[in-house]
Amino acid sequence: AIGFIGLAMLMPTDQNDPSLQANAMAGLKAMFNPLLLAGAGITVLAYAGSFALYTYISPILLQVTHVDERTSSLLMLVYGMMAAIGNVWGGRLTDKQGADRAVMTILIGLAIVLFAIWFSVSSLMLMALFIGLLGALTYAAVPSMQARVIGLSHIHAPEAPAVAAGLNIAGFNGGIALGSLLGGVALDVTGLTSLTWVGGGVVIVGILWMLLQINSNKRRTTSDYS
């Protein structure tokens, strides 16, 4: 909020350029475009599901898997290394399959991994495997979901692709906050291991919503051609 006020007051502008006001209004309109908001909503659900678990992964490892703090730190390193690999893989998957298929592949993978952690939480070897996969899939989502929302903006708000990109970044951060909140509630109510199926359930909602959006886009495209 402080940054917004500072930019509004201090950023130099050419008051005589009528395109500036038009661009600002186009950006504001794009920010509330329901199709772009729906696309960013998939990002929110994916990251909420992942971070409902990941926010509390350390106490899970320490109290349920019964590893020491050094091993827990090493597993966080595995997560980070796989996140970097997943980010590259997600971009290549998007280039190869297209944004819709890539996002769906990643969502399904996230759901499988989150539920697999539920069954594997007592095994150090399996936890190492699935924590690595969780990192890879969570950050593979970044390029694929960003490409998808920007692709939607090219169709429905071609004048404001940067706004669409920013909207999706807000979706990532909103998902992290929402996931942490949901995980905290689940932790208080049903305990640490419930975070796995809570996160998996949120991602499944994202999968269903993704299917609805894909079908809706197909019907809209068919209607345009007819």
Structure commentary:
By secondary structure, the chain is mainly α. The protein has one domain: Growth Hormone, Chain: A (Up-down Bundle). 88% of the residues lie in helices and 0% in strands. The chain has helices at residues 2-10, 18-31, 34-54, 57-65, 69-97, 99-120, 124-156, 161-190, 194-225. The longest helix is centred in the middle third of the chain and has 33 residues, at 124-156. The radius of gyration is 20 Å and the shape is globular. The mean pLDDT is 89.
CATH architectural label: Up-down Bundle
The parts where pLDDT drops under 50 for at least 5 residues are: none
Distance between the termini: 46 Å
Number of domains: 1
Write the SSE topology.
Layout lengths: L1 H9 L7 H14 L2 H21 L2 H9 L3 H29 L1 H22 L3 H33 L4 H30 L3 H32 L1
Quick recap:
The protein is mainly α.
List keywords for this structure.
226 residues; Growth Hormone, Chain: A
